[in-house]
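Below is the data:
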Amino acid sequence: MVGALLGQIGSWLGATPHGAHLYVLPLVAAALALREYGWLRFPIPNRRRQTEKVWAHDFGFTVAALMWGLDIGLGFATHISPGFWVLATGAVALADPRFGALLLLAYWIGRALPVWVGPLFEGDGEGVACPPRDLNKTASDRGLEAAILTWTVAVGLVVAMAS
């Protein structure tokens, strides 16, 4: 629903799947990459909130995994990574609710899947739900995020130039 809404917002703003506005995506990705490299400093809108760890004990691991997936899958409900802002920008820039829905569905699956399958590889076979990561990034986290954003700049430029 979030992706479809973002795509619809792009449509309401007059964006089309083709045009100069597509250069916004690589520009946003470049600014965020420079931020992650430490070359630019600026705040990004963010919620300093994680999913509730107690859900696994209160509701059981299967239900907690679903609740975690729904919570983090909304995108804007918990800690927002710079890469998510690029996805949100892409959904708006391409101005297609279907594409936005698919884009954010892929994001949701990527965030929820490790929580769902993680317990299969842990402990006594009963599984232990994976707790959310700490919000404090390590240098390698920032480096990986910056590299992914740099790649996104390149892909975004190719897409924008091809349109």
Observations:
- The chain has seven helices and no strands.
